[in-house]
Amino acid sequence: MIRLIALSPALADAARKPHRFAALTGAHVADVAEQVHVVATQDAAHRARVGWIQEWGGFLAIDDARQQVVGIGGYVAAPDVDGAVEIAYGTFAPYEGQGYATQIAGALIAQAADSGAVRLVYAHTLPTPSASTRILEKHGFVQTGTAQDDDEGLVWRWELPLPVSAR
Which of 41, 52, 71, 84 suits a disulfide with 91, CB 3.0-4.6 Å? Predict the structure, then answer.
């Protein structure tokens, strides 16, 4: 089972001190400590640009059975005025191919649905079939077109309308 914990400057610092990180989170960083520090620092910089709302930020994904950080996920920003929110997710290299990214995406979708503020969840992928496109398809997303990403260029846009009962 995956648990999401909000990224913070304290976690970024603690990632380089495994005992402190374990005390804060109940999980180990093991061989991904530097990656956790980097993504937590990047998340803090992104939040400084777009505004920081904890529930709509970045998260570490922890496998509670292993008590191990296995990946990251989050929302690019808070839901817009139409109730649309973009998700992003990933698994650290030692944990790829084990279903974690699918679980992380699912946890983000569930959290967005539970918020009552989201009507549509969307994501962007590179414009080619991939593990990420399969993850989105598993969750019921449909590719609706393309978009221009500042970092990646042309990307596919995927959308998942949430049921009315989830709002």
Answer: 71
